[in-house]
Structure formats: C-alpha cells, structure tokens
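Support case: user asked for a sample of complex input and structure output to validate their parser. Sending the pair below.
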Amino acid sequence: MTPTPHAHGFSDDVELAGHIIDSLLLPKVLDEINALGGDYLSHDICIGHNRRDPSYVRLTVTAPTEECLERILVSIGQHGAVPVEHHDIRIEAADIAGAFPEGFYATTNEPTEIRFGGKWIPVDRQEMDCGITLDPASGRARCVAMADVKIGDRIVVGRLGTRVHPVGRGSGERRHSFGFMNSTVSSEKPKHLTVREIAEQMRRAAEGNGRILVVAGPAVVHTGSHELLSWLIRRGYVHVLFAGNALATHDIEQSFYGTSLGISMESGGSSDEGHEHHLRSINRIRRLGGIRQAVEQNLLTNGIMYECISHNVPFVLAGSIRDDGPLPDVITDSLVAQTEMRELVQGVTFCLMIATTLHSIAVGNLLPAWVKTVCVDINPATVTKLADRGTFQSIGLVTDVEPFLRILVQELGGTSP
Amino acid sequence: MTPTPHAHGFSDDVELAGHIIDSLLLPKVLDEINALGGDYLSHDICIGHNRRDPSYVRLTVTAPTEECLERILVSIGQHGAVPVEHHDIRIEAADIAGAFPEGFYATTNEPTEIRFGGKWIPVDRQEMDCGITLDPASGRARCVAMADVKIGDRIVVGRLGTRVHPVGRGSGERRHSFGFMNSTVSSEKPKHLTVREIAEQMRRAAEGNGRILVVAGPAVVHTGSHELLSWLIRRGYVHVLFAGNALATHDIEQSFYGTSLGISMESGGSSDEGHEHHLRSINRIRRLGGIRQAVEQNLLTNGIMYECISHNVPFVLAGSIRDDGPLPDVITDSLVAQTEMRELVQGVTFCLMIATTLHSIAVGNLLPAWVKTVCVDINPATVTKLADRGTFQSIGLVTDVEPFLRILVQELGGTSP
Amino acid sequence: MTPTPHAHGFSDDVELAGHIIDSLLLPKVLDEINALGGDYLSHDICIGHNRRDPSYVRLTVTAPTEECLERILVSIGQHGAVPVEHHDIRIEAADIAGAFPEGFYATTNEPTEIRFGGKWIPVDRQEMDCGITLDPASGRARCVAMADVKIGDRIVVGRLGTRVHPVGRGSGERRHSFGFMNSTVSSEKPKHLTVREIAEQMRRAAEGNGRILVVAGPAVVHTGSHELLSWLIRRGYVHVLFAGNALATHDIEQSFYGTSLGISMESGGSSDEGHEHHLRSINRIRRLGGIRQAVEQNLLTNGIMYECISHNVPFVLAGSIRDDGPLPDVITDSLVAQTEMRELVQGVTFCLMIATTLHSIAVGNLLPAWVKTVCVDINPATVTKLADRGTFQSIGLVTDVEPFLRILVQELGGTSP
Amino acid sequence: MTPTPHAHGFSDDVELAGHIIDSLLLPKVLDEINALGGDYLSHDICIGHNRRDPSYVRLTVTAPTEECLERILVSIGQHGAVPVEHHDIRIEAADIAGAFPEGFYATTNEPTEIRFGGKWIPVDRQEMDCGITLDPASGRARCVAMADVKIGDRIVVGRLGTRVHPVGRGSGERRHSFGFMNSTVSSEKPKHLTVREIAEQMRRAAEGNGRILVVAGPAVVHTGSHELLSWLIRRGYVHVLFAGNALATHDIEQSFYGTSLGISMESGGSSDEGHEHHLRSINRIRRLGGIRQAVEQNLLTNGIMYECISHNVPFVLAGSIRDDGPLPDVITDSLVAQTEMRELVQGVTFCLMIATTLHSIAVGNLLPAWVKTVCVDINPATVTKLADRGTFQSIGLVTDVEPFLRILVQELGGTSP
C-alpha cells in the first residue's frame, strides 16, 4: 500500500457493508477515525430499506502521517471496514516458546479472515485473546493460545491483511436491540418467556441440531437443584459439562449424606458434623480412585456426576486454589484444564452458564461470538462482568437458580421432583 | 422502690425466665448490665432440660448510683428481666397535641404489659415506636402513634412498671436457630422447602385460622406475575393487600394495553409509545373516578385490582413522591395512609411481602412481633434492611418474584398460567 | 397533511439532522419505522466530518394505511425526525379537573416545541410524563401535571405539530459514548477522576454559574457523613436540598444524642436505648413546633438541617409511609410535596443524588434532560433503576457515600473532619 | 471410656468453661445435645461477674445408646465441652497416599489439642478441613492436607481425645458483639472508625509486632488504586502479597500503557486497541522470562509488582482457568499454589483482603481463626460468603476499594497521589 498523500496528509479508501447502522458499526468506525486523529469524507452511502437489508458506505480516510493512517486502518478493520485495495498479512516466526513475537495480531471472538497469497483464508478455532498461526504448507490458519506457541510457529503480526465479520448483535433476529441492551441485567422484566426460549433452543439442539454446554457452579447443589440438572443430563439436554471441584463434591455429598455443605437437602437445617461431609466425600472418592470407580462399584448411584458417567457426557472439573481435596477427577493445572476445555467447546452451539462467575468468564473467553450463551445468576454483577469482559453475545438472566431450573425442566416436559 | 445501697453502690434483684439461653436473652441482659456500668451476681440458675423447657435465673444487679441502677433496670426490662419487687408505671397527661411528654415510654413490637394499680395490664394494638396511652376509666392500655396524641391523653412515662415478653425467635419451633440466623438472606440455600412451608401457612389461614396480608411492589407486574397474584386473591389466599400507585397502575396498564411500563407481557419487547401506557391508564381511571367504577363499567376486567374489587379484598394504595397521577384510589397523605393500614393489620396473622423495600419496612413497623412475616426479594439488601429496622420476626427469602409466585401457586394446587 | 398515496400505500417526507449517527437517533428512527409496519427510502445523506459536525438525512416514509403512517410520523417525531411539511398541533379543552382529555400528548424530559399558528413555540417547565397546556392569549405553552389540570385548560392532543430536540447524550463532550453507556454502573472503574469532575461542576455552579440541588438519603447520616454534607452547605455548594423525614431525623438525632438510628457516630457501637433516640428527637422538635424553632432557640446547633436553616438553603422534606412522627417540617401529602419540589427545581443546573432510591427517582422524574445529574449509591441497582425510569442523563457512580463525600470535600478545598 | 449406663441410657459428665454465655457456646452445646438425640442435667453453674470473667458449667449428658453418646461427645467437644474424664486419641496409619483413613478427624481453624500418652499436645499449623498427623517419635502433631498424606502417616481418627479452644469472637475486646454480628455486612454504618482501627493494626504490625498479608483482586488496579497499594508496600505495611494473574497483569499493563483492561487510568476513557494491552503486557513479560527480569532490566519501573520485587515482599500469584497467558510467575497448579501459600501464611497476624472473592475464600480457608482478617468489598455477597464458608473471624467492610485505600493511606500518614 502506498497511501495517497492528501492535501491534509495521507488517505486511503475503505468500505463498510452490512448492518452498519443498527449494529452501530458505522458510528464506531467514524468515532474511531476521529479518536485516532484522522478525518473522513463519506461517499456512496446506501441505507438498507429495512432491518434485513444491508447498508453500505464508502469513506475516504485521511490522516496527518502515514503511521496514523495505518493505525486507523487496522483499528477500523476490526469493525469490518476494509480498504478498497487489499493487502496480505505479515508473518513472523516465533522466536521463543510460549510467547508471540512483539506486534502479534491479537484475536477477537468474531469470525476472522486473513489474506495470504492474495486470498482470504478463514481462521479456525476462533477464540479471543489469542494469536493466529498459519501453516504455509496446508494454507490453513487457526487461533493459538500464547502458552501453546512453539518456536518456529508462523504468527500473524500487525492487523493489515486481516478482517473480521462482526456477528450482528441480534440484528435481524431480535427487534428493538436497544431496549435489549439495557434490559439484560434487569431483574424486573418478564422472564418466563426467556425461559421458554431457552427451552426451545435446547430442544432443538437435543434433536441433533446442536451441542449444548452447561457450565455450573455449586449453588446448583446448595439450592437443591441437582436433581433438576440430573434430569437434563438424563434426557440428553447436556452434551458437555464444565464445573469445578465444588459442584462435583457437593453433588457427591448430597448423594452420600443428603446434605450440601452440611445443609440438609430435606429439611434445610444444618447439623454440626455436616460441615465435614464434603471432606469425607472427597476422601472416599480419592480412596476409590475417581468418580467413575465410585459409579462402577455402585457406591455413587445418583446425582449430576453419576448421570454424566452413566450417559457418557464428557466433563471438565477445573481446579482452583480454594478447593479442598480435590477430587481425583479435578484438573489442578489451569493451563491443562483450559486445553481440555478448548477441545470440548468445539462444535458447541448453545451454552448455559448457571451460578458461577469464575467459570462463566473463563468459558466465555473460550467461545466464539456466534455461540448463543445464556448466563443465569441471581447476582446482576456476574452478568455484567461477563459482558464487560467481552462476551457480548451472552444473554443475562438475573434470576434464582432453583426455580429457573424447575421451570426449564417443566417447559421441557419434565415433572418436577 | 428503694434500691438497697450496696457495698459497691445500689442493688436490686431481678429474675429472668423462659428460653433465656438459646434465645440469647441472658447474654444480652448480662452484656447490657456491664455496658451501662453495673455489675451482677447470679443465684438460682436453672437450665431447662431441653429446648422446650424454660430456664430461670435470678440476678442481683448492682450499680454505683441510683440513676445508673434505674437505667439498667429499665433497659434489661425490655429483655424480660423483671425486678423481683414490682412498681407501678408513671403517667403524664399530654400537654401538646401530636407529641408525647418528654420521657415517654417508647414501645417495641413485642407483647407488653404495664403495671397499674398493682395489676399487670396487657397493651392493645402493639406496634413499635409508639407511646402507650391508658384510659383510667376502663383500665385499658393501647399503643398510640405520636401524631395521634390528643391533649390530655394519659401517656406512660419512663420504663418502670412495664415489662415485655419477647417472642422467642423461633425457639421451640425451629431447630438450629443459629444457622437460621445466618442463612436468612442467603441465596445459596435450598428454598423449595421454604416455599412449601409458606404455602402450608397460607392454606391454614385461608381455611379460617388466620388472616393474610400481602404487601406487593410493582415488580410483581413487571415480571409478569400479576396473574399469579390474581389467582391467590381469587382463591381466598389474600385477605388484605397493601401496595402503592405503581403496582395498581401497571396492573391496570397490563389489563388495558398488555404492557407493564411499556414492556410487552407477551413478547418482552418494548414499543416506543409503550412508556405512555401507564400514564394513559391512570388518566383513564381518573376520568372514570376510580378503580371500582372501572370494574363496574366492565372496562377493567382482569388483574390484581380487578380481583380485589370483585372479591371484596380491602386494599390500601399508599402514595409516594414518585407517583405519576396518581390513581384516584391512592391515599396521597402518608399519615392518613398509615392510619388506614393500622386498622387493616388488626387480626393479621401472616404477612407476605413481595419485592418492595419501602412498603415492606413501613408495614414491618406496624406489625407486632408475633405476626409471621416472609419478605421475598431478589435483592438481599431489602431483606437485611427489614431486619436492621427491627422487624426481626421476618424470614427473608432471596429469590426471584415470578418463579417464587409460580411455585407457590403450584404448591397451593393451581396450574400455572 | 394529505400524505401522498404511494405505490405501496401512503408516504411522507421527513428530515433528521444533528448527531444522528453517533447519538443513535438514525438507527432508532429506522428501527421504529419498520417496527410500526412502514418502510423507507433514504435521500440526501450527509455525514458530518467529525463528532462536532452535524449529519443530515432525508427519508421518504411509506406505510400501508394512513393511520399507520401517522403513527410512524408521531413516533419518529420523538427522535427528532420532522416532516418536511409542518402541521399545527391539535388542542382540546379539559373536560374534567385532574385529568387530561383522552389522546393527550404525553411529554418527555427533552426540549420540546409545539407548532401553533404556524410558529414553533418552546414548552416551559419541561418535565416527563406530563401534558402540555397552551395559553392562547399569551401564546405560551408549558408542562402541566395530570393532577393540576383545571377544567377548560387547553391541552395538546396527539403528537402532530410537536417536535423534540433530543439532548445529545454526551455527544461532542464525551468521547467514546458507547463505553460510557456500559460503564456507568460499574464499580470497577477509576472513579477519582469522576469525583474531580463533580467537584469542578460544583465549583462553577457555586461561583454563580448554576444552581445545585442535592437529594440525600439517611445513609448520609448513618455513615457519619453529615459533617461533610454540612460543610458543603456552609460553603455554598448546595442551593436546594431534597430529603425525607429520615435524613432530617437522624441528622437531628446525631446532634442531640451523637447517634444515628441508635448507632454511635463516635464508636460505631449501639446502646440499647439508642433505638429510641430518633423517636425522642422527633418528639422534641414536634414539641418545639419545627426545626427552625429548634435552631432559633439554640437547641439545634449543628448538622445538615441546622446549616440549611442558618444559610437559608430551601429544603423539601417529603413524607413517606415508613416515617415515624414525622417532623413538623415534613410535607406528608405527596402531591403537595411534588408541587413544592417542582417550584424549587426551576433553575437547577446540577443535581447530586446521594444514597436514596425513592427520592432519586422522584426527582429524576421532575428534572428536564439537560440538567446534569450524578447519582451516587453503593448499590448498582439504584443507578440502573434511575436510567431505566427514563433519567438517561444521569451519571451513575457506584461507590460508598462516606468516602465519596470525604474526597469531594477534599477536592473542594476542605479539610476532612 | 465406659460410659455409665443410666436410667435413660448412657451418660457421661462434661465441663465447659470460658465465655460460654456471651460467645453462645453454651446454647450451642445444649442445642447440639438435643439435636443429636440426647439429654442433659446441669450442675455447678457459675456465671462470670462481667464480660472478662469466665463462666463455668458442668453437665451430665445422657443418650439412649452408646453410639449416640459418643456422637454427642465428639460433637460438643468441638465447642470446647470436654469430658471430665479424658481419653487418648485413636491413630491409624494412612493406607493410601493422598487420602485419609475413613473416620479421620477433620480439623477446624480453632486452636486444637490432642491427648496422646495422657498428655495434651497442641496441633501445629492449624488449618480448617485438614487432618491431623502425629509424629510419635517427636510427639509433635500438625495439620496435614488430604493431598499431602503419605502412606504410613499416623492420622488421628475419631474425635475422642481432641479438644478445641474456640477463639472468642471478639469477646472481651469488642462490646456489643451481637450488634456487631449483624452489622458486619452493612454499608449503612459509620466506617471511618473501622478504617482508623485497621490503620492502627497495620501500624503496630509494621513496627515489628506482626506480619501483614494482603490479598488483592484486579479491581485494585481497575479502580486506579495501584499507587495506593504500592505506597503501602513501599512503606513496609505489606509483608506478603497473594493475588492472581489478573492483578499482576493489569498492574504491569498500567505501568507499560497507562491503562487497565484498556481503560485509561488518566482519563477513564477506553481506546479500541486498549483491550489488547494486557495481552501484550503478558507477552512481553513472558519474552523476558518473568517479572523480576523486567524490573532488573529497568523495563518495569513502578506499580505493585515492581514494589514487591524492589522491597523483597514475597508473593504468590495463583493461577485460574480464566487467565490469559499467564505471566511466567503465576503458579498454574492449584495444589502447588496452596502449598506455597501455606508456607507464607505462617506467622501472619493480620490479613487484609481487598476485592477478590475467590482468593479471599481460599486464603480464609488457610488461616487459623486467631488471625485478624478484614475483608473489603463493595459487594456484600463476598463478605457474607467468607463468613458462610467458616472464616468467622473476618470483619467485613462493605465499601469501595479506591476511597478505602486512599483513606487508609491518609491515616497512615501518606499524602494521596
């Protein structure tokens, strides 16, 4: 590229197409150009007749220096504004294991393409906050996590030659997206309809048109909802489960002792020895070698983990520093757990996150933007944080876990226990 | 009383009986004596064999001055520690309308007696933060609000000659009260059992053994739960309803327009004109003269207010400064509203507060401590505040309104809409 | 208007100018047209060169029926899209006192004009959820609350002939408005700068370029911040104060007893008699006749209310149903209180709301959109609710009252007590 | 032990001494006896004259079966009720690595002794949810985590022969403990005094009378408080720091780029490239080999991590599944991180937890009950959870991080930046 020196500096032409008005891409691009010190002139504006029709605009971007112009071009490229003339990516070989070259291209969770040898190549295993590595032999590109970089990996550097196709935030599907943006976290909205919609999504996925990931925190057991989640697993509504030591431990505790964190599931009361139940449950499983062994020896005969083992639902129990024990099935190394989770999210089309901030954000980081994600928590802060950390596609549902799952099961045809 | 001048000052003997260990009364009394500068010697301690048996202790309280001793005696009297020798109350005539004499006895919400003419008289219409007025002719005593004092009313002054019988906080009824105290506000406990208990209480009351007061905020309508509350009214589970302009307005809005605050109850979406619906609803009712007129003219044909009118359930709509309109049925003067509410709480045995901080605290202030109160809110702060303001008898349930009511209705035999 | 019958129905031309891209007005207008069943064709689009330059678009709106077209035109008129050909308003005389004619124009809090006799007239006393009354003699228009309508008042009906000029939400002033929209309620952002900005705004207003309204809840006293607010009043940073019985009562309680709700301001501890202090404080003021009398008789010598009286800062203490007493200065009728507040908000340029949900929303309803409003609360829900109820111009600050005021006072040159 | 067969079954005598009334130990013991199916008779009750004097009670506990009696005795032993006749512990050799024998004694965080060879031996490294291992050679006992058990370790089994000395929850130090218990989580209390107290504790520890552990979440950086925490480290008020990848990353990001999670620390605004800053910061440190290398090469010249390196303050950065990168200094295996943390908490006398739920609970689990712990968070749920999980000794402070640290620094004599 040799940007044209312009009266006021350097300039280049870009075009932007799609739902650029209602998805706010155009305002963002214009804002970005000004924020980075540039200016623009608009030509050939065409606004779609309705929400489904794409709009189009062609802009001449000008900047005082060539560096400034490049910075603007790469920045607005992330919103889908592509130069009318295209450029190939730059590639650098990794010189250090577990780190990118300086200036590496940092990924988003949106569908991304890179231009190599004059052709646009889609990037596989899209995930935010990674780099892109290209295999020149096969001509295939994919996201790679920082820790997984090997010396010699061909890493994309800079943003020229990349383009993203932002997933419309509900454009075309959801009317009144503005109201929607405000209402996600509210607890004062009619929610029954949303539960019904979630049920519908899960039914479709269970019928073979998708793959459902459930991410769940221990409150599922504390609130007495384990039987509801067990039902969902039994009936094929859960294809992958991610959780931590706590969920599995208290699930096994309720099976062994009828308590969760020592609180009786029957009476809601606590007994003094109860606080030890979870520890004794972990110890027993450690003595047996693992959860599968406990199921196979008919010692663990119900609950969430039992159903996962019985119905071959793969799970990841990721460790944390607050774990007691932990259970032998827990992956204590966070990098190993991430790698395992990365494998299992492939093909996931719908993700239900229930009552867990840490795991929700961790999984949100791994999922591409086009996976429908519903985050259910009684604490509005969890839902807000998820969106703040970049998982924009999530629908937040501020509600209580137990009745949420109870009504979800009813909607799916189950009779509540 | 002539308290005995003691080696270290003045002293008097008190006795304390009942569930004084597990209800924490004894620790509080001992703490109080020390905190106010006194000392004690314990005699005749007898601990009940189990939770149902009363305990008993007799203490000699000593203090450096007579004033200090009196202060201690009146203070611990509020926890049920009564002097072995009794004294009559002091009475003063009100010299100003709408105010008590200085030094008036300020009531709690616990059962209270005053000693007059050597006899213990129970106080009627028990309510916290009032005074006590005695009618010497009839010999009857009752609580009186500050604003209701008339010149010449005989007002109890000081605390000598009064005694309260603290309602055991669940003692004898609920095992493990300590766990309970911590868990009220938690959202991480099994709650289905609590809903079942509430249903049981309401069923008993509906069968003629009680009177149910429901206090509800507009979120009942915003969350699409109005049909559930309507069902409860229709089936006789609500004997009195307290709410504000907002609940009634949005209830009528959903009946007239199918929206609440402009949000569709059907689709969850908002339309641009929707934000006017509540205003147009109020205006229409104002044009008709009131809610009853709208029902009688077949213009209001469903919803919470419709059911109240149709089933002769008395209600108070109390005004607030954030009201639009308001509806003609709203009592805009807060003192008039309080008086009206005071009348209607007489005989109430069970109070269900749903999603309203202001009204919950206001009603909590009016209720005697022996009325079972359940406060349901998704925000733990509301539940905490209620207890902080002195309504200790309330059971807080941190959960979501709509599923709570849905499951309550199911427990009472209704099929959810 | 005789809208042109079009190939696909009826049509009319509208134009939209200003910051229509970055303020999201254009997307909203286009969305609205489709949502209401219409279609559009865009002409003459001109995008401003930068954030400060206005953009412009002219649209032909089409609809299947004349009614549908009118509905669209009035709806998008609220976003500033005005027909190229103009129309006068329709007026109807009020037939009932305290109610509008059906079909009345319901106001927003944005600057509004009505077209009468071919001329655009600005509406005085702009306030949301009111009607507009026109005095044909003087040709002046102003907002009127429903309850204040008198028979014969000339009320604007329908929306044709009205136009609003939406206040840009920070456009031109604040870069990156999108981030801003998401971040208002977050507690995880650097806030010191915001406090500095608030201080700057208050300094300018105190220097004669504005009028500051403070709306405060009792937590100001409970948290021991009364001395900080007193300092602000003393130094001229508060021109009007709105609060309730609780703030004034606990402020007077801390002056009389050194406690707030019985909690010592010195030690943080509670004493058993303390819970009566607020009641005794109210009673004493009632015996004196009012707060001013207490100040004049040198009985109330410090605190928030003392400073208001001493520095002639007008205040409204609005009553609520949870009030004890109340103080004689409290306006117990909510309509009377609203009227009083309406008078005092005239001329206000900056509003600081501290730790009160009820009063914040009530005052937010009364303020026009161009008054800068900062809502400070430790509970994110309060801030969210304020925006949900239409007070979009408010900047929410999720932080703790006491340290917020402490640092604000420091920024204004005070030394913290 | 051969418990006496009693008229109603089996019986044994226990005694309970100390602050058994006001610390609620007696009510708990009595409650426990009944809850587990036993009965009691009280003798020799002696109530202390004041809060500082110990009380004493001797109880005969009866139960229908010998098993029931044993269960009661071990249970009430955890509250300090010890049999008048003593018994030695039972010991079993671990048969499996990483697991206890069934029936192992599960520890609390209270000071514990075991009776071995007729003598009471104190348990070292007290920590909740561990086992106790005894070295018969040296006669020393210490807590051991489940995962650290080696085959052949001598593990205490059952609870007979153990006794705990519950740390009075503030008894004798803090007046009005009951109010205190309720008020911890409230945001509506005067907090300035608490900050002053914390400063006083830290000053004493910094003067050589203690060891301060700070546990901090990334909000410390997001809110712009890193310079305040840096000051505390520089001045010797932090002896150990526990955090995660996020705190260190955003601290380094602010040093490298002036942003935290892409939000400018100066202006509060966000820039589009900013979201990559944390990733580029991690990558740079990975390229250098670690934080120390960055400091030594003068590339990292300020901030929290810089001060830790410069002032030889040991730290643990514990990994989690939501980490990007992570930094090379992060311990990704949670068991390794726990072991490292266990070493560093030895000798800690004061622990300040700031804005992190996960790390606060993890560290709370590791600390003995006698370490003073203050948990500061704007979210009341974090504080509540900490206490719910057994860290009773923590004082919760619901407030905003940045102003909290600002005022803490001021109290310690610093001038705020």
